[in-house]
């Protein structure tokens, strides 16, 4: 993707994603007598001016029930990656016409594997699994060398897919194990560096083949010094055979290098619960990890009775340990509303998209918000609007009382424009993303 500050105005008009979406910049917008220069509208340093931007302003009530969301049209300006002005709409302004599209916070995919995918390459469906997770580890040992040959390119294509669905940020797990060594990490870092003007990310050093099962310890220690954000893990009992030893190593490595923790936990039996409780205890012993520790999937929570769910949710909330859920459905429904009731941070993500683990995946976390709303009966205007937080990592335009809290002057200029009248409709209909702005620059 070309950066705006390296292309001509003619090329911008020809190639702009805004033009593709029908948000065109006409000659009338830029004239010799204009008080707003061409650079002010088009430059790639976060300067942007939009008119006819639809923002949510409050709720409309009937008998104490929210029956609709109030919106109005505004003029929005950005500069240096920040929102600098939110003003009453000005039809005469020399600005990009946002066509009345709804402006929402840019979406965030908080659990994905950008480093290992078939996306952008030859189509392949998932093959029959043999031997559970350890069987998949054996498969990865065979196929990772081939995957790594063009993993930087495929990661970039995945990022472009996420952008087309409105995400400007991802937390990506990346394989750190004896087969890939540090190559998967290095290849992903190249992709992220190539996309740094249009996409943000956090990296989790992920010992997919176990910390001790395949001895990923030396590679994890080295990765912890390589500009990553979290130390990961996977099923310490079923993979490594020891909960305490594996968690102790993970916690200590995170403490030594001031990183967060994000552990995959698929185990649903007694070992799954013990892992959750032990990690909570370790975080309580090391308060610097509060707010920086997460359990991804954590399927065991969906298998507990309601009383135990409440108990564990309260402990997670008090320890500030978050849950990152792909929002599974079918035989397993996670107690996400219970977690949220106890102030547990809940995120979501696409996990794997078209790889050896999963044939599916659209790249849309707005679709995840829709699934969340359906699974938990969030069908009213108010509850649909609250469900948007799954897509935005908990940032909403209106608070629960209908008071506007986003956007405000000084906020990051990361937002999407959707063909929707309000958040509730966007979630219910999985409304089309017309454009994505990251740090004030149009990237889709």
CATH topology of the largest domain: TIM Barrel
CA gyration radius, whole angstroms: 23 Å
Biggest sheet: strand arrangement? 6-7-8-9-10-11-12-13
Report how far apart the termini are: 9 Å
CATH-assigned homologous superfamily of the largest domain = Metal-dependent hydrolases
Largest sheet: 8 strands, parallel
Tell me, what's the shape?
A: globular
Work out the count of structural domains.
2
Treating each run of at least 4 consecutive H or I residues as one helix, how many helices? 16
What would you say this structure looks like, in words?
InterPro entries: Amidohydro_3, Metal-dep_hydrolase_composite, Metal_Hydrolase, Metallo-hydrolase_Enzymes, TAT_signal. The chain is an alpha/beta fold. Strands 6-7-8-9-10-11-12-13 form an 8-stranded parallel sheet. It has a 4-stranded mixed sheet with strand order 3-2-1-4. A 4-stranded antiparallel sheet has the order 5-14-15-16, with no helix packed on it. Helix 10 runs parallel beside helix 11, helix 13 crosses helix 16 and helix 14 crosses helix 16. The N terminus is likely disordered.
Q: Notable features of this structure?
A:
single chain, about 450 residues, alpha/beta, Urease, subunit C, domain 1, TIM Barrel, 2 domains, 8-stranded parallel sheet, 4-stranded mixed sheet, globular, disordered N terminus, Amidohydro_3, TAT_signal
